[in-house]
Amino acid sequence: MLAITFDTGMFFSIMLKAMRAKRVLEIGTSTGFSTLWFADAIMSGAGKPHIITIEASLEKIRLAEKNFVQTGIDDIIEIKQGTAIDVLRRIKKKNYFDFVFIDADKESMLEYFDLVLPMTRTGGIIAADNMLFPEHFRPDMEKYARYVRHRANVQSVTVPVGMGEEVTLKLG
Prior knowledge:
Blueprint: H1 6-18, E1 23-27, H2 33-42, E2 50-55, H3 58-71, E3 77-81, H4 84-91, E4 97-102, H5 109-116, E5 120-129, H6 138-149, E6 154-159, E7 165-170
Parallel strand pairs: 1-2, 1-4, 2-3, 4-5
Antiparallel strand pairs: 5-7, 6-7
Helix pairs in contact: 1-2, 4-5
């Protein structure tokens, strides 16, 4: 089970704290390692933190829930079980999320982006994992990078931290 690296977690922690993020959407929970980083970052400062995380695998959800309970953050996390596309179509929270993290099946990246962009507030960030590694993801991730960089209402760059992160800022 792939998880973000320590330096990626620290990178996102600093970013979320700097932008004073409180509402996070995560596509691909796995065992919840990245969720733990996000929770720690958004619990600092004022405001009620909330994370919605999406995972298809019940086995991974059980592991993640155990991690969330052990660390005492389960009260701010809402796990939605199912395929990400189906769950995203049901969420429909316009301009709600400060930060969206996409770390799921790479074949659906463009559709995920199109579904989460309206849910992301102006000035919010959409980040995609595995831009550089593992190498077998590279064709899908290069296609994703080209796609988001040609959008008029965003700015995007690949940051070579961890496995490579595409960081996309939603403009007004």
